[in-house]
Amino acid sequence: MDSLGTSQDPAAPGARAQRAEPVGAVVFDLDGVLVDSFAVMREAFHTAYAEVVGHGEPPFEEYERHLGRYFPDIMRIMGLPLEMEGPFVRESYRLAHLVPVFDGVPEMLRELRAQGIRLAVATGKSGPRARSLLEQLGLLDLFTVVIGSDEVERPKPAPDIVLKALGVLGSDPSRTVMIGDAVTDLASARGAGVAAIAALWGESDEETLLAEDPDIVLRKPSELLEVCVGASRTF
Question: Which Pfam families is this protein grouped with (predicted)?
């Protein structure tokens, strides 16, 4: 397994993800990759659970295991009321000003753009909520497109959201990477034929993510620059 900064260079001979073409586009998950939204997500979930279910301990740890999926899909999987979406979204908007960007992310994004690499977001959030958050953080203009799970027929782990990003970006899968912090991100990337990169700087379950054998593993945002704009610009 490649682990940039921990074992071998992803462009080195013998690396599993060998591509002849340089990286031309990057598709990002949002939560846990670009922004550290877990504290806000936890509070919004607790509030929604208290309002709609009203008893017992909110099963947030179970909810975390399904991150990357669309919120209504998670509710169905967990057997929770779909009515939780309303207060969850309300609280997520109300608390959005508390969501920080991970250290190094703005600089990494701007350098990728400066190198001519096209950027997209493919998130489990709804499109309007994702775009609102990125605009508030001053990052929205760095992306060619931001796609939410409500804007495709089949959300992650299906490949639809990544395929839609590829279409808008005009990028070939062989020149595109997808970076996420959840198993659903890796599955969506592979279904779309793009390299699957695991981001380990958030609160992701590292053991579970590594068990999916991602093409490349990154432990800080700046390492993505070596993958995309390093000496070889290939992976």
Answer: HAD_2
Q: Is the dihedral of CA 177, 178, 180, 182 positive or negative?
A: negative
Sketch the domain layout of the chain as residue ranges: 25-35+100-229, 38-98
- Span 25-35+100-229: which CATH code? 3.40.50.1000
Active-site residue identified among 2, 9, 29, 215: 29
Taking the model in full, what pTM does it have?
Answer: 0.87
What burial letters (b/e) apply to 113-135, b meaning 16+ CB within 10 Å? eeeebbbbbbbbbbbebbbbbbe
Q: Is the pLDDT score of 218 beyond 60?
A: yes
Active site residue 215: no
pLDDT, tens only, 118-142: 999 999 999 999 999 999 999 999 9
2 catalytic residue (yes or no): no
Greater pLDDT, 10 or 40: 40
Would you give the end-to-end CA distance of the chain in angstroms?
13
Q: Cα–Cα distance between 68 and 202 in angstroms, integer? A: 13
